[in-house]
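I would love for you to help me understand the pair of lines that follows before we discuss the fold together.
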Amino acid sequence: MAVCDTNGSSSLTQVFDSLTPQQMRERGSLKWSQYPGDVIGAWVAEMDLGTAPAVEAAIHQAVHDGLLGYMPPSVSQATREETARYQREAFSWQVEAEHVSLLPDVLSSLSMIITSHTRAASAVIVPTPAYTPFLEIPGRNGRSCIEVPSATRWASDGSPRWELDLDGIESAMDAGAGLLVLCNPWNPVGRALTAAELDAVATLSSTYGVPVFADEIHAPLVLDAERTHIPYASRPGSDPDLTFTATAASKGWNIPGLKCAQLIASGRARARWEADAPSAHLRAEASVVGALATIAALRDGQDWLSEVRTYIRANRDALGEALAGAEGIEPTLPEATYLAWLDCRGLDLEQPARYFRKEVGVAMNEGTTYGRAWSGFCRLNLATGRSIEEETVHRITEAVRRRQGAS
C-alpha cells in the first residue's frame, strides 16, 4: 500500500529509490535474469516498481478465496464493464461493455485479426520502428509485412520528434495491403499521437477499406500533464467497421504475466469477431486472476499510477540532462510509455545494445529488432528505481566516453 506521512507525501518514492540491482536479481524477473553477472536489466518492457496496492490485494484475495480456475461469467462481465467505464472517464471514448471482449493478451488478438478478419494473403503494414512482435506475427500467419520507416523532424526544443510516414502507408494500402498496425502510444519512440495524425490515418483507412489494429496498451502511461492519450476509435473519422482496438492494464499497472487483455470493437467489426468461433473463443483463454487484477487497477489504482508516472518522468528528465553533453548519442525522450529510444549512430556502432551490454553491463534492445532501417539505435527502459537509473545513465555515459576516446 502507498503509505503517506504526516505531510501527505507518499512513501512510494522512498520505496522506489531504495531498489537495488541485487534486489531485482533476487526477484528473478526475465528483465534481470536473462543476462547473468553485473548487468542492469533495461530491456524488456516491464517495470521494476511493483504494482498498485489495490491490485496486490485483489490477487491475494483471489488466492485466499481459491478463485484460480476458469473465468466466471460475473467476473468477465465486471471486467468488460470496468474497461468500458475507464475508457469513457479517462479518455472520453464512449465504449459500451458489449463492445469489449476479453483476451489472454494483445498479440493473440492481432494474430486472430490477421488470419480471420483481413483479406486472404494480404500484407500487413507496420510503421517502424515498431514493437518487435508486430514485425514477426504477420510471417507466422503466412502474410508479408510491409515496413514503413517513419520520419523525424526537430521539435522547437531541439529534440527529435517521430512522425508516421502517411505517404508510405498510403502507398502500401494502394498496393493492396489488408491491415495497418497502429501503436499508440508508440513503442519504442514514446509518442502519443495527435488528433490530426489519427484523423489522417482514419481517412486512409476509409478511402482504401483497410482495417486498423490499434494497440493502445500504453494508454495509461502518458507522462506529461499537458498531453493526453487519444483513442484512435474515438475520432469521428474512424470507421467502426474497420477498427479493432486492443488494450490492457498490463503495462500501466505492471501485470503482463496475469494474461488478461481486452479487444474493443463495434459495428460490423464486432459482429465479425463474435461470429468467428476462434476469435470469440479467445475470451476463454483470459486469466481470472488477471481479470480481477484489471478490475482493481482500473477502479482503485489511479493514485498509484499517477505517482508512477511522476517518478518515470523524473527518470526521463534525468536521462535527458545526462545525455545532453554526450557526443554521439541522441535520445528520444518519451512523452508516453517508459521507453527511451537512443540514436547511437554517432558512435559508429551497428549494434549499440550489444556494445553497451558488453562494455558496461547495461542490457538494452537492439534497434534492428524494431525494423530493418534502425541499425545504430537501441531502446532503454526507464521504469526502475532512481539509484538504478542513475547507475544506468552513469554506465551509458562512461561507455560513450570510452568509445569517443577510442575513435
